[in-house]
Write a structure and sequence with these properties.
Layout: H1 10-20, E1 25-29, E2 32-35, H2 36-52, E3 60-64, H3 69-80, E4 84-87, H4 94-104, E5 108-115, E6 118-119, H5 120-123, E7 134-139, E8 147-148, H6 149-155, H7 161-170, E9 176-181, E10 191-195, H8 196-210, E11 217-220, H9 227-240, E12 243-246, H10 252-262, H11 271-279, E13 293-296, H12 303-312, E14 317-324, E15 328-332, H13 339-344, E16 348-349, E17 354-358, E18 371-376, E19 383-384, H14 388-394, E20 401-409, E21 415-420, E22 425-427, E23 430-432, H15 434-441, E24 447-457, E25 461-470, H16 478-488, E26 495-500, H17 514-525
Helix pairs in contact: 1-2, 1-3, 1-9, 2-3, 2-6, 8-9, 11-12
């Protein structure tokens, strides 16, 4: 049964959480411990500063910074002022960040200097951003290009707190809450506009599905600029009265220390996070017995990894699911799903979601056959910011969002994601799905990670090429691996080339950037004097 949404907006949720749990720690960030009452007060101070800076209701304010208490305070302060949050990917370079700031017409940028050695304001020195009126630093030395956080907050002293109260009272479920830009593994990112009511509905459902509880201690490794970190992390914690532990940079040893010291109960993340923990030789020296809930997701997770998470780590529950920025979580595992369903499928559609797989003509694909995943629900975005063409292309006449993902419904109703439409390749007339091939290759004992793409072939049109990261200390025999694939895959699915690499290119949310692999494959096929073709 779905919980009832009782808040009209995110700032209303924050104030309700502060009233319910005033002395409970909302965020623990190293030595800094912030209660729910303090979090609400600090967000109000940010809102007053934004009002003093001339930011009006509905205007957009960007945050370009790593996970921290200050990130949460800034984000909640933005919505408390009635403004719209625009999170910016911390891996973006200046040109990429400037694109987001320009397209969103952000009035204020909240950022840092020095994170991983990067001076973020300096990256924007040449950018033309006529709508940007101020850059404010959460951390780092102020200068002509960026002001200090303390000076920014001091502006708010002149603003009557009732002005902020009035802005919160004016917010309703249909007002925009945030614009999150897609990860942009191909082309320019698009700004996904979400509303307060949609966000609250989607992530209250997430809390019910994941069984997040009051008193949980939630270690958030997922970046806050992504919905997994901000919405399924920070906002979900506010809903339940959990404590947030932000992690700016994933490091196995430091994460394990925090789990032991703070008795962490909830640790979601990409499959690679769990793999890193499982493979760490020092894991056994830490007390991880407090861990209760794991949440992960990917196109295809090795069954053996799910077995190891459940068998070697003390989690009571492991959840897997499928979602996207434009819709939130769409499908999820069920509490009693077996390892094969947890690892090999994305679960079943959530309540309120109409999920179909269709062919190129829009006809429903029968069970067992691949089609594009299309979804319709109240939590699906209404459109991309100031991009009517992309919005129109994303929806069909019946209001279904076309995700671009290829999926297969099993006869029992579980959805398997087999790849992206653009990643599928056709070998001699047969459709080959990278996720399916990757899942098989991952079962080879020498393979730690793999990504498969299609490359041109004169005879067959396209064939598969696999980029493989070996297990530590193992040398992959590429000819042997191809021969092994022939024993386990239909001939058209077998990669014709194997490339051993130290690491796969990924974006900040852990997705493999296959365009980078296509570029690498092209360079290998057409060597230059400085880039000889490998034998």
């Amino acid at each position: 049964m779905r919980s009832e949404v009782t808040w009209p907006s995110i700032p209303a949720l924050l104030r309700d959480a502060a009233a319910r749990h005033p002395a409970v720690e909302a965020v623990v960030d190293g030595a800094r411990r912030t209660t729910y009452a303090e979090l609400a007060d600090q967000a109000t101070a940010v809102a007053r500063a934004l009002v003093a800076s001339g930011v009006g209701p509905g205007e957009r304010v960007a945050v370009w910074a790593p996970n921290s208490t200050d990130w949460i305070v800034a984000a909640l302060g933005i919505t408390t002022a009635g403004a719209v949050l625009v999170p910016v990917n911390t891996r973006f370079k200046g040109t990429e960040a400037a694109y987001v700031l320009e397209r969103s017409r952000a009035r204020v940028l909240v950022t840092v200097r020095g994170f991983l050695g990067v001076d973020y304001p300096a990256l924007l020195a040449e950018a033309d951003l006529p709508d940007l009126t101020a850059i404010v630093l959460l951390d780092g030395a102020p200068g002509p290009d960026a002001g200090s956080w303390s000076d920014f907050l001091a502006r708010g002293a002149a603003v009557d707190p009732t002005e902020v109260d009035a802005r919160i009272a004016a917010l309703g479920p249909d007002d925009p809450s945030d614009v999150v830009y897609t990860s942009g593994t191909t082309g320019h990112p698009k700004g996904v506009v979400m509303r307060h009511g949609q966000t609250l509905r989607a992530y209250l459902d997430w809390c019910d599905w994941a069984d997040l509880r009051a008193g949980d201690r939630y270690l958030i490794v997922n970046p806050f600029f992504h919905i997994f970190g901000y919405k399924a992390g920070c906002l979900a914690s506010l809903m339940r009265g959990a404590t947030i532990y932000p992690v700016a940079v994933f490091d196995v040893a430091s994460v394990l220390r925090i789990v032991e010291r703070e008795r962490i109960t909830v640790l979601p993340g990409a499959p690679t996070i769990y793999q890193s923990i499982l493979d760490d030789p020092a894991r056994g020296s830490f007390d991880l017995s407090s861990l209760r809930l794991a949440v992960t997701g990917a196109a295809d997770i090795p069954v053996e990894l799910i077995r190891r998470i459940a068998g070697e780590l003390p989690f009571d529950a492991v959840r897997t699911g499928y979602g996207l920025t434009e819709a939130g979580t769409v499908t999820g595992s069920r509490p009693h799903d077996d390892f094969d369903h947890l690892a090999g499928t994305a679960g079943v559609p959530w309540p309120g979601f109409d999920v179909r797989t269709v062919d190129a003509e829009g006809r429903d694909a029968p069970p067992g056959e691949a089609g594009e995943v299309i979804v319709r629900a109240e939590t699906v975005m209404h459109g991309y910011l100031d991009d009517p063409e992309a919005t129109a292309a994303a929806f069909d006449a019946e209001g279904f969002l076309h995700t671009g993902d290829l999926g297969v419904f099993d006869p029992d109703g579980h959805l398997r994601i087999v790849g992206r439409i653009k990643d599928m390749f056709i070998v001699g007339g047969f459709n080959a799905y990278p996720a399916e091939i990757e899942g098989l290759v991952l079962t080879h004992p020498a393979v730690n990670q793999v990504a498969v793409i299609g490359i041109p072939d004169e005879r067959l049109g396209e064939v598969g090429m696999a980029f493989v990261v070996p297990e530590p200390g193992i040398v992959v025999d590429e000819a042997e691996l191809i021969a092994w694939c022939r024993e386990h895959l239909a001939n058209f699915k077998v990669p014709r080339q194997i490339a051993t690499v130290d690491a796969l290119p990924v974006n900040a949310t852990g997705k493999v950037v296959k365009d980078d692999l296509r570029a690498l494959a092209a360079r290998r096929a057409t060597p230059t004097p400085d880039d000889p073709k490998e034998a």
